[in-house]
Write a structure and sequence with these properties.
mainly beta, Carbonic Anhydrase II, two-stranded parallel ribbon, 1 helix, 9 strands, disordered C terminus
Length: about 130
């Protein structure tokens, strides 16, 4: 089992399985956005802290590679689960979506230090450690 308190001990099996280390020297740059569109405003509700992450549930829809998905939840990893050139970022956000036939798509956002996003700051300000919030 992956121990989030011992991330330095993690090994990657290959570049297709979490956690991965993105080697930017060996990536292909595509000068266009991926086909990901949020189709409506997502409504979020702080859900719980399970000891390794804060989970937020809610509603919303997105088009991912031109297929419809509904929002299931988002959760955070601090520090990041994945690496870029062997380095973590302070925070990684996983937005989890599901299609009508049960396929999951996880969109990962690597977050650096900078000005606070209003929605993210609201989640952090209302977080209560070690409590289920329903």
């Amino acid at each position: 089992m992956t121990d989030y308190h011992q991330q330095a001990d993690w090994t990657t099996v290959n570049d297709h399985q979490s956690p991965i280390d993105i080697d930017t020297a060996n990536t292909v740059v595509i000068n266009q956005y991926l086909p990901f569109t949020m189709n409506n405003k997502h409504h979020l509700k702080l859900d719980r802290d399970d000891g390794t992450t804060i989970q937020v549930t809610g509603t919303g829809h997105a088009s991912i590679f031109n297929r419809p998905f509904h929002f299931v939840q988002l959760h955070f990893h601090w520090t990041s689960e994945h690496l870029i050139d062997g380095e973590t970022t302070p925070l990684e956000i996983h937005m989890v979506y599901q299609s009508s036939i049960g396929q999951l798509c996880v969109v990962s956002l690597m977050v650096k230090h900078g000005p606070a996003d209003e929605t993210l700051q609201e989640i952090i300000d209302n977080f209560k450690p070690d409590e289920d919030i329903r």
